[in-house]
Amino acid sequence: MRTGQLIGLLGWITALSYGVAISNFFVKYINKKYISKLGVAYKQIADFYRVIMKLVVRTHKLAGVIAIISLTTHFLIAFSRNIIPATGVIAAVLMFIMLFLGIYGAYINKSYKGLWLKVHRIL
């Protein structure tokens, strides 16, 4: 595999895993606003949605870790080839801030409330 192809593959892995990680917010939001308000007639749909939601919630941290690992590898290979777009650096910095906020909230603060969570979600 050529270096350019590897950089592209790692970029796609980063984007897809980030997409899975960020979908955690959206599935919870949809559940809170819409699915939880469905009547008994839509119980099967709500149950199916919650199965999907649990899968997304369970894979949130793993997807984030995969995104960070592939991002770091992507960046190091691109940096070694002198390919450093400003938008890529900005995206990488934002993803690392999200990582540190997630680690802070889940393992240091051990609270799923507060300013750190709002900033984590906004980013």
Biggest sheet layout: none
What is the total number of structural domains?
1
Strand percent estimate: under 5%
**What is the count of DSSP helices, taking H or I runs of 4+ residues?**
4
Order of helices and strands: HHHH
* Head-to-tail CA distance between termini: 33 Å
Q: Strand tally, please? A: 0
Rg measurement, Å: 18 Å
The global form is: globular
Instruction: Enumerate the spans where pLDDT stays under 50 for 5 or more consecutive residues.
Output: none
Overall mean confidence score, pLDDT: 90
**Proportion of residues in helical segments:** over 70%
Structural class computed from helices and strand pairing: mainly alpha
Provide a concise account of the structure shown.
The protein has 123 residues and is mostly helical.
Furnish the topology, listing elements before pairings.
Elements (H helix, E strand, L loop, with lengths): L2 H31 L9 H38 L5 H23 L6 H8 L1
Helix pairs in contact: 1-2, 2-3, 3-4
Descriptive account of the structure:
With 123 residues, the chain is mainly α. The protein has one domain. The protein has 4 helices and no strands. The chain has helices spanning 3-33, 43-80, 86-108, 115-122. Helix 2 packs across helix 3. The longest helix has 38 residues, at 43-80. The radius of gyration is 18 Å and the shape is globular. The model has no long low-confidence stretch (mean pLDDT 90).
